[in-house]
Amino acid sequence: MMNKSRRDVLKTLALGSSALFFSPNVLLAATRRKKDKLGIALVGLGYYSTDLLAPALQQTKNCYLAGIVTGTPAKAEAWKAKYNIPDKNIYNYQTFDTIANNPDIDVVYVVLPPSMHKEYVVRAANAGKHVWCEKPMAMTVDECQAMIDACNKNKQSLAIGYRLHHEPHTQEYRRIVNNKLLGKVTGVNCAAGYRDNRTNHWKQTRELGGGVLYDMGVYAIQGARLGMGMEPVAIVSATTSTTRPEIYKNGLDETTVAQLEFPGGVLADIKTSFGENVNFLNITCEKGEIKVEPYSAYNGLKASSPLGEIYHPYDIPWQQAKQMDDNATSIMQGKPMLVPGEEGLRDIRVVQAIYKSAASKQRVTI
């Protein structure tokens, strides 16, 4: 006599329900379970993708460059030849949503101007893909929340491209702070900036997410937040300025300085600029000071404290490779992301509060 389970299977097949066994979602899930490397599609082929992420993906162990999304046919041809990317894995912004049907692509990495982040993160999540998104996460807290909600709704992970969270100098100063190895933190001073001589990049265009605070400013905010080991409760004061109004037009910030207040009245001073080269993090504790300089560079980071020197040399683009490998491992093991969407949202909440304080010349509660 035929056992019940076999009879049920044959009955299902007889009813023509082959979609139950061969639907794209089922096949995609099965493919993901079997993979030892995740396929990454880069969306936007500007400098960061071209000079850092693509080379880093040649070094990663847990993921690889599987596809690209670009609006420039010439770039598509060049990348296809350089990285041996099959035609079926090359998309433009009109065909992007069909990426849902491609089992080669497990993760969509959004590397576009900030004004486009929300749209493509949501579209990628709706296509059933995990999403990595470059910083700044988005333009507003509401946009950040919509991105988080879309990924949760579609049961896809979301990670923000904060490479420093994955590297050893940052992890070590955070360990010292969080474990109070030098006592409580009594103040932080952080600056992140460089002289940007471009005149028409998205960083100089308000509508695309320009202004220094959204870009380098996020590093200074991160330095304050991670250096304190707490979340800020208010912006005490803030000022935005430019020495090049012909480039940073209509009040767009070339330089921003702000003072953040943390629980217990502890203060952090931050500065960020597209007008000067500045990059350090000083964390003053009860038993001494942690100094990191440079603080947010792609390599050459070096730190010191009363507990000793912190120095882990590595070459570019090790940070980017480590970040992507860590994120891929989390996906494959079903673990939370080291830098989830909520972390990006926290910074944008501070960005919005700083702009509000600068405009009103008043203290702003976060």
Q: Can you put this structure into words, describing what you see?
A:
Helices cover 36% and strands 22% of the residues. With 366 residues, the chain is of the alpha/beta class. It has a nine-stranded mixed β-sheet. Strand 1, helix 4 and strand 2 form a beta-alpha-beta unit. Helix 4 crosses helix 10, helix 6 runs parallel beside helix 7 and helix 9 crosses helix 11.
From the structure above, extract its key features.
single chain; 366 residues; alpha/beta; nine-stranded mixed β-sheet; six-stranded parallel β-sheet; globular; disordered N terminus
Outline of the structure:
The protein has 366 residues and is of the alpha/beta class. It is 36% helix and 22% strand. It has helices at residues 4-14, 19-22, 24-34, 47-57, 73-83, 117-126, 141-153, 168-178, 216-228, 318-333, 341-360; strands at 38-43, 63-69, 90-91, 107-110, 130-133, 158-160, 185-193, 234-241, 255-262, 266-273, 278-285, 288-292, 303-305, 308-310, 364-365.
- Coarse structural class: alpha/beta
Radius of gyration: 23 Å
Task: Indicate the proportion of strand residues.
Answer: 15-25%
Q: What is the percent of helical residues?
A: 25-40%
Number of strand elements: 15
Order of helices and strands: HHHEHEHEEHEHEHEHEEEEEEEHHE
Overall pLDDT score: 92
Strand order of the largest sheet: 14-13-12-11-7-10-9-8-15
What is the secondary structure topology, with strand pairs?
Blueprint: H1 4-14, H2 19-22, H3 24-34, E1 38-43, H4 47-57, E2 63-69, H5 73-83, E3 90-91, E4 107-110, H6 117-126, E5 130-133, H7 141-153, E6 158-160, H8 168-178, E7 185-193, H9 216-228, E8 234-241, E9 255-262, E10 266-273, E11 278-285, E12 288-292, E13 303-305, E14 308-310, H10 318-333, H11 341-360, E15 364-365
Parallel strand pairs: 1-2, 1-4, 2-3, 4-5, 5-6, 7-10
Antiparallel strand pairs: 7-11, 8-9, 8-15, 9-10, 11-12, 12-13, 13-14
Helix pairs in contact: 4-10, 6-7, 7-11, 9-11
